[in-house]
Amino acid sequence: MATSAPPEIIVPAKPSSPEVLARLFPGLKPPPSVLAPTRIANNGPDALAALLTALRDNHERSHVFFNRFSFHNHSTHHLLAIYALGAPGPVITAAYELTHLDHQRIAFVAPENVVITDDNFTDYLGNDQNYNAYLDYFHRIVLQPGATIPDIIEKYIFSDYYNIRTPKEGTQQPEMLNRFLEILLHPIIHVGYGAEFGLLGMIAEGLAWTAVHPAGATTLISRLLFTPERTTPLTEALNILSLMLRDTRFFGSRVLDKHEFAAMLESHGEIFNKYAEMWDCNIENQEDLEKYLEEIIFADMLMYGVGSWDGDDAEYRADFFTGHIVTSALFLPSLCAHISRRSQTLLLRAHFLTSITWWVVRGRSPFPVKEFTATPLPPFPNSPSAKHSTTLPGPQPAAASDALPSPNSPYALVPNPWYPILANAIVHPNEHLCKFQRALAHFATLYSHRQAGFVMESLSKDGVDVDPNYAYLDGSVFLRVAWLTSAALGWVVQGETNTGIWNYQEFEQKAYDDLAMLEAQGKA
Questions:
Q1: Where are the annotated segments for Disordered (predicted)?
Q2: DSSP letters spanning 429-484
Q3: Cα angle vertex 69, ends 54, 50, to 5°?
Q4: Spans of all domains in the chain
Q5: Would you say 145 and 330 are in contact if contact means Cβ atoms under 8 Å apart?
Q6: Does the predicted model carry a pTM greater than 0.85?
Q7: What is the pLDDT of residues 128-145, one digit of tens each?
Q8: Closest by alpha carbon to 53, among 106, 86, 14, 95?
């Protein structure tokens, strides 16, 4: 959705004091729960120094969208991901300066110097012109004495008052949970980083970002979660995907683009709501949370990972849109560590509704799990006719004669395929790859032990015709998908050129072309 044109005279936002910046970005806290991702060691204090310098600079310098087409500023997501993967300081600095600074939109004050208060909070929602006005508001919120991340997130994302007010106040409802998952789930990623690393600056930015997102495409979330009238039978997430694949009311295999997301919900929204309502997700304790997190993560892996695969001899599609449902799922554990059981239920159900919608928008790809899991796992070689090799490109060193298990074993050179996958993600210039691979590595840490058939007993209890392909689903899916995604985007750490090939469809290039035309006409 295109944003309104920026003001003719852009007045840069007033910089924060060094003391305020130090309070917003003081350092990093440990992961908030055992379900949240761990961090890999880096080479010393320079890495954190480089990270904090870049986070503070971005906070002062840049707007949340880097152009007028609502393309998100991903710089902090990129930097925090590679820091967590163990990147050294020079790589973090280069990632910021070489892949982000050249195209950022400067932070500017709201037209007519709008000041957001509790009383007028809803008056300026959904307009990116007001980003810095909302950022100033959330600065005051996160820095007030006694403020905590749990209290802030509970109030501004999950409370009834900041979603559906009764009676309605002003011209629009807040619908903050809707906005939290809008435009490819970026606010949940941003606030999720704040929750994971304990960064008040990321919380303030993410909530301001949420406020200036529209609430048009995901308004079904409010109807599903804040006016609940459950009338459907309950079942598990994978069975819901099976039912949706058989549903003739959808568009078949047609692939839609980003701008058709809202139209899809207008025409088929209540169908999505009924399917999302069917998910048997009600979190009352830690065991429930772990169960439903695993459900949603394996469902996301099918929608992106297996859904992007068209056979071993075809280019892996690495769908950009369903990829975001995987990346955003990484932050569900960190967010859930800060919120109540009720809010955990709301969050997971909202994420599931958004995920199945994007999956249908992107063509409702089937899940040939049996064929997908039949190929050899890296580092063992697959068929020479395969589009993507399961061995690393380029010349390989020779293992010593006493290397385990033997010098000729593929394991002697690549004992753990995650190492080259993550090394490639750290230095790859594509800012999405590192976030995605970090998510898959964490999910593999949690669930790679699952053996084929582990879902079948539970699925068969729902009275649904279970897809027989699910009998082949196992914990290797994370490594398989991560390897294929690295191969599709290029093993730059092994000397291959960055391909940048996520399946964007046509809208991304069209948006850039439109912007170039406006710039040529002097109208941008």
A1: 383-402
A2: S-HHHHHHHHHHHHHHHHHTTPPTTTTHHHHGGGTS---GGGGG--TTHHHHHHHH
A3: 5
A4: 19-216, 217-388+403-524
A5: no
A6: yes
A7: 888 889 999 999 999 999
A8: 95
